[in-house]
Amino acid sequence: MDAIIPLLYIAVFPGFIFLGVYALLMQWVDRKLSAVMQNRVGPPIYQPLADFIKLISKEVVIPENADVILFKSLPYVAMASIITSIFMIPIWDGKALVSFEGDIMVVMYLLIIPTVTFFLAGWSSTSPYSTIGSMRVMTQLFGYEVPLFMSFAGCAILAGSWSISGIAAYFSANPWFILLNLPGFIAALLAAEGKLERVPFDTPHAKNELVGGQFTEYSGRLLAIFLLSIDMEMIVLAAFISAVFLGGLGSFTGLAGFILFIIKTFFVCFILILFKALMARVRVDQMLKFSWKWLVPVSALQILIDILLKVNI
Amino acid sequence: MSEETIKEEELVKNLKEKFGDAIENVIIPRKNRVWMDINQNIALDLMKYLKEHGYYHLSTITGFDEGEKLGAIYHITDHKTILNIKIRTSKENPVLKSVLSVYPVATSYERELFDLFGIKVEGLPEGRNYPLPEGFPEGVHPLRKEVKLDELNKMLNEKSVKED
Amino acid sequence: MSKMQIPLGPQHPALKEPENFMLVLDGEQIVDATVNLGYNHRGIEKAAENRNYIQDIYLIERVCGICSHSHVSCYIGAVEEIAKVEVPAIAKALRTIVAELERIHSHLLWLGVAAFELGYDTLFMYTWRDREQVLDCLELLSGNRVHYGMNTIGGVRRDITKEQVDEISKKIKYLKERTSYYVNVVTEEPTFLARTQNVGKLPKDVALELNAVGPTARASGVDIDVRRDEPYFIYDQLDWKVITYHTCDVFGRAVVRVLETIESYKMIEQILKAIPEGPISVKVPWKIPAGEAVFRYEAPRGEDIHYVKSNGTEYPERVKVRAPTLSNFQSLPYCLKQGYLADAVITIAAIDPCMSCTDRAVVYDINKGERKTFDQEELRKYSIEFYKKKGISFK
Known about the structure:
- The complex is a heterotrimer of chains A (313), B (164) and C (395).
- By secondary structure, chain A is mostly helical.
- Chain A has helices at residues 4-11, 16-37, 47-56, 68-86, 103-125, 128-159, 164-173, 176-180, 182-195, 207-210, 220-245, 254-278, 284-312.
- In chain A, helix 6 runs antiparallel to helix 9 (182-195).
- Chain A is globular and about 60 Å long.
- The N and C termini of chain A lie far apart (48 Å).
- Chain B is α/β, with parallel strands linked by helices and 164 residues long.
- Chain B has four helices and seven strands.
- Chain B has helices spanning 6-19, 43-52, 107-117, 149-163, and strands at 23-27, 33-38, 57-65, 69-77, 82-90, 95-97, 120-122.
- In chain B, strands 1-2-5-4-3 form a five-stranded mixed beta sheet, covered by helices on one side. Chain B has a two-stranded parallel sheet with strand order 6-7.
- The longest helix of chain B has 15 residues, at 149-163.
- In chain B, 35% of the residues are buried.
- The N and C termini of chain C lie far apart (61 Å).
- The longest helix of chain C is centred in the N-terminal third of the chain and has 29 residues, at 89-117.
- Helices cover 49% and strands 12% of the residues of chain C.
- Chain C has 16 helices and eight strands.
- The chains are: A mainly alpha (313), B alpha/beta (164), C alpha+beta (395).
């Protein structure tokens, strides 16, 4: 019996199945909302699932020059690291399933792994489009990772804790500090847009230039897993941001806590969708310039504010 | 009529003074249109002269097949007046000089002359077919009058059947 | 990193028609670019020689789907010049209305395509939705949405009614409002500006040397427009101005196109206020007297030029079509070099390339050959059977 419960955690809730269903649902919300904003009808609710099933049933084609083992294993690595990170984020309780001092760092690192797999995916495919795509993945990584990390660090300093649950508890105890962290929140959202490779920072797989970017050579099941893990990453990142910046679940537990979790992640995702609908894609050099000129100073300022607050309290 | 076409007549007069008998059959049908036949030898000099005098735009080159002769019409304009300069060449050995040195934009127009009419253009760098597709039967220049549409269709269909 | 050659096309998501660009990249920067054309040769010029003048109208109309009226008007202009036909005033006015509606439709379409190439899907959807209004106008006027079939030698084929005038005026009013909004988007939206300003630079002297035409040239400050330089139809009686811009980049090309649509609305409103009376066409004999003529026409993409030679029979001796895109392609390698790969697609899109116009002209009619192919009716039957098996029936 003891062995089954962790397995259920991994496979069903909050692991693969819950995350997968929520990710597909959020993909539908994304597509439907963008459609409404763009004056279109948009897809029916089962469309993302239908797309997923269709992709899974397609043939997998592997390029001749590719490293087969690497090529095949990368999507699973990406998905595994994303599912792992959800265990450290509070979902139905103030405290996450796994929680320790420093888990915020672990999640940050776990969330870099998918990006690295995207890079390796493009690089191991050896086609020109995917090579350029993976180069852009790496270039972009240097743009968003620093401000994302710094804005999280600001909250951690203020809360005096390096555990996600600890930070969430601190902010739900002192809700007014959420407003003081607004600049960091906005910087984190924009950096997240870069991490998720969504418009306006979707240069790595800009279809007009690079066809499918780093995923050009991927097909069938492998591509399906990759696409699903990107959707999952959006949920995890939204949950992460809402836990750190928006005070987590507070004193709610059980179903009420879970509903609050859904509301908060939904809110963060909604802002991400808004960004996507409002903007054009920028060039990769413009993205770097933007993040070092604006995002990094803003998040540095956030750290400064938090340190000053901490000293004065 | 003459009131309207002063500019054109002036231009033709200047050209005649400079190039003499090499210019023939000048027609000014209306404002902004000048037609003339010229000898191939003066083509480049004439175009250089025109370019210096504001006729910087080579609109296109139209090939034509008159039965005994092949030729090309160079439509040169300053965006008001179009000069249509005809140069003829023999059908047995059709050769024209490239005008790339004066009008660098002529590449695709000159390739068209070769592909569609079989007029060799001296001084045109090697390149892909344009506009005919790769693997089009060699030596067939579809816009020549002796190439009949039915025969062309038959030939191309046989070819594509063979390739399958 | 070593230099890398990357093909753009003939099949590529950014290109709607087959053309090929070989880009040599050094990292993200383009160091060399070559343009390869000719994937789409249809033999229209040869086909035109084997049809009579009236049949050719419908053939030439199919040179291009977007500027169909441009090509056919240009061809008809040349034929009418040879035959010395005086076209009735109302026909000229109607041709002008269709021409300007076509320009609006083409420019709005372009704005959508450009937005799509920039990954700006919202603007893409918005402009294409509004483009429907123009297509509705064209359908109302001519009965067709793409190939209008409005022109004939000696005039037009359909008259305009009072109701149509009212309906079109209403739609133009709506479009005017929408377009002024797009002017704001194009000139103010920061990501759009970031992606278009200083991209695909084409200085004025280079534009002149490389024979750029249309909005591409006008955005480089070259003040040319056939509608003013050599007025055809009734452009000389209308109050409008040629839009030029001085930035020489993709942004300038976008501004020129959007402002040109506003000029087109102005023109259409003027014409609709005073449509001449009278018969819509004059009779022209089937046999056109011998002669030759060149006609220029300002298509949405630039100067379109047709050469027609007649030998006194009902079949033309030679028809030559030079689409504006072919002229603009000459300047494209210049614009692409030293730019970034990310800018390549928008730079290509900025000249509004239309390959079906450019490559037009050898007949490759497989249906007539010995090969087993479907004719239309068989294909229709086949498709119905195919879907019936899947349980979908339209009856």
